[in-house]
Amino acid sequence: MSDERGPDYREVNFDGLVGPTHNYAGLALGNVASMSHGGLVANPKEAALQGLAKMKALMEAGYLQGVLPPQQRPDLGALRALGFTGSDERVLARAAGEAPQLLRAVCSASSMWTANAATVTPSVDAPDGRLHLTPANLQSSFHRFLEPATTGRVLQAIFRDESRFAHHPALPATPAFSDEGAANHTRLAGDHGEPGVHLYVYGREAFGWGGESSPAPKRFPARQTREASQAVARQHGLADHQVVFAQQHPEAIDAGVFHNDVISVGNGPVLLYHEMAFLDEAGTLEALRERMRSPLIPVRVPVEAVSLEDAVGSYLFNSQLLSNPDGTMTLVVPGECQENESVWRTLQDHLLAGANPIGEVVVKDVKQSMRNGGGPACLRLRVVLGAEERAALAGRVLLDDALHDELTAWVERHYRDRLAPEELADPALARESLTALDELSRLLEIGSVYPFQREGA
User: Fold this and answer.
1) Which of 185, 232, 249, 168 is closest to 377 using CA atoms?
2) Which of 76, 118, 256, 450 could form a disulfide with 312 if both were Cys (CB 3.0 to 4.6 A apart)?
3) Domain limits at 113?
4) Exposed/middle/buried for residue 77 (C-beta within 10 Å: 0-12, 13-18, 19+)
């Protein structure tokens, strides 16, 4: 596309496949949708097919689309580490009877939200000319803390060429370095091939800054620390002139904005954000303008147009902002945006009719994901890659028609169309999931990335 330096650098959206144990357990404190839908019956097959349909539609529109596999669930190893012993059937039965919330946690399909999988710095920004990846530690919630080890193996299996790709360990899994990945990170540049500026958004400071503690949310926890964002930037070798650290507004967190990508989204030179996204809105914009080589194009949505409640309920800002060959941009929004009158009116009258590059709004149904608190932006990890880097990817992870059809058939074979929380203890579900994942790893040609495949190896 023309938003590159020549034909080389392209943005690839790696979407997470929804796993076979997709369920509504209401595990995520601060995620209003997740909490409000806890206990409902889920449809794993529909969820996975909705995700694949979104991927295929974007691929057919000319965007590069990748796929990341789900995690091994249920995570019986985690239950055994917590003292549950015996056969798989016995472990599941005891967990269901003694600690049902733990069982729900080890069955979570939350890895489908790959915006939390890692933070990525493209090679065009890194001092060593390699693409850098750091898996998020996701320490703020137990069900997501289980993900980083497998995430790291998956990323290493795909981005295998050490001369082009650099992998860093997840940060220490402590509250001081709480890291939620790319959901709190945005890269802004005139085009994908231009050196970019990295906007890291955090909710709190673990050790204080400048001798003073910053304002904190009162209702829900702030998941990302400034210290974690700084550490990732250091791992990737970014200099001061390449980074901006901005605090998320605590009132937004208390309204259910658990990640920055629920209140702002950026791509290229455009930053689409809600008035209440940043504690210091003016300072954040000024810092970005000072560092960017190309002019920043801020698109501000005032609270009078869309309230915080409507922003969270519709996931307007958890949309995908995609660059087009003619210099315009397409915004991919969840169906809930069309159902909210003020949000839909703002999209038509403020964004599409405004003086900004957003020229098209595309509505996608990802309702199964939305009920658990993840919209289109949550479902993808953005990776800017040059042509040679794309050619160096291992495995079969770039979507084409053949892979889409095979993945659709795989879902149809292995997924249930109904899953209630009380059914998570079914030993047959665990066997079905392992069979499906073993087949998937061969289909994607990524090797033995799952614990069950590596036991005794």
Assistant:
1) 185
2) 256
3) 10-73+108-454
4) middle
Instruction: Please tell me whether residue 176 adopts helix, strand or coil conformation.
Output: helix
Within-domain flag for 102: no
Q: Which amino acid would we find at residue 207?
A: F
87 belongs to a structural domain: no
pLDDT digits (tens, 9 = 90+) for 273-283: 999 999 999 99
Amino acid making up residue 219 = R
pLDDT-derived band at 30 (thresholds 50, 70, 90) equals: very low
| Lookup: tokens for 209 | 């800054």
Domain count, the chain: 1
* Residue written as token pair 């879902």: 411
Supply the DSSP string of 69-127, one letter for each residue: PPP-SS-HHHHHHTT--SSHHHHHHHHHHH-HHHHHHHT--GGG-GGGTEEEE-TTTST
Write out pLDDT tens, residues 42-67. Answer: 899 999 999 999 999 999 999 999 99
CA dist 44 and 87 (Å) reads 26
- Backbone φ and ψ of 120, nearest 5°: -125, 135
Look up the pTM and report it: 0.93
In angstroms, rounded to a whole number, what is the distance separating the alpha carbons of residues 397 and 424? 29
**Pair 184, 260: CB distance under 8 Å:** yes
* Count of residues in the chain: 457
* Gap between the Cα atoms of 68 and 66, Å rounded: 7
CA 68/CA 298 separation, integer angstroms: 31
**Residue 435's CATH number:** 3.75.10.20
Cite the active site residues. 180, 259, 378
